[in-house]
Q: What sequence folds into this?
């Protein structure tokens, strides 16, 4: 019986690894959709990848992945998938949709986030992201939805890329100790509202869904400034997600 329980635990742990890896497939689907000009479908795949990333950490802790499937480094896998979905996919999305027209602008988030993901001080000891946490997928969807021009897009991207290097602490929703429920339920509601806005643009325009969805990013940023803010403590953990 003990051996059977161990097999089930290992199977669940490896299933969580597979779930994390599925985010890379969603990223590929988002790239393919954007390459053929189907930006709505691409945005939906990006949102699906966000949903996977928002839940796989909880599953990994729940099923003790590090204990029952230690042969695969879940954090490294997560970082690889996240760099694809949070950086490469949205940058390609913005280039192909015409929001980025300069190679230098496209390179800014790619290089800044490479630093952000690779630095050994990417996360504080109390589980905050240190520096802008490369939410380029969220940024890309909003720039596309609001039909922001190439010049304004370039300004936004350069400013956010610079914030990767500013030691502001940003919330890590799944690892919060305070306001966990409100923040994560808000994230789930935000995901649903944005997905509906993308999938049903006429309804979204009538109800101003995409504008209403901005409530959560404002909440997130305000809470990050309140609970996190500027820090000079650079002693951190190695993983950005």
A:
């Amino acid at each position: 019986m003990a051996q059977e329980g161990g097999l089930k635990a290992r199977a669940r742990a490896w299933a969580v690894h597979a779930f994390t890896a599925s985010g890379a497939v969603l990223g590929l689907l988002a790239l393919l959709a954007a390459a053929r000009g189907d930006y709505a479908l691409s945005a939906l795949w990006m949102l699906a990848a966000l949903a996977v990333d928002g839940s796989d950490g909880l599953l990994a802790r729940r099923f003790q992945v590090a204990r029952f499937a230690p042969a695969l480094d879940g954090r490294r896998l997560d970082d690889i998938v996240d760099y694809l979905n949070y950086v490469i996919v949205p940058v390609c999305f913005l280039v192909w949709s015409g929001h980025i027209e300069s190679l230098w602008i496209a390179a800014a988030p790619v290089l800044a986030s490479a630093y952000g993901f690779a630095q050994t001080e990417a996360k504080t000891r109390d589980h905050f992201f240190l520096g802008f946490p490369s939410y380029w997928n969220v940024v890309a969807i909003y720039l596309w939805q609001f039909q922001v021009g190439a010049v304004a897009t370039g300004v936004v991207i350069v400013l956010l890329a610079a914030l990767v290097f500013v030691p502001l602490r940003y919330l890590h929703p799944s690892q919060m100790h305070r306001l966990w429920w409100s923040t994560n339920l808000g994230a789930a509601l935000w995901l649903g509202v944005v997905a509906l806005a993308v999938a049903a643009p006429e309804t979204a325009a009538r109800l101003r869904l995409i504008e209403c969805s901005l409530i959560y990013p404002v909440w997130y940023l305000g809470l990050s400034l309140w609970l996190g803010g500027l820090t000079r403590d650079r002693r951190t953990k190695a993983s950005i997600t």
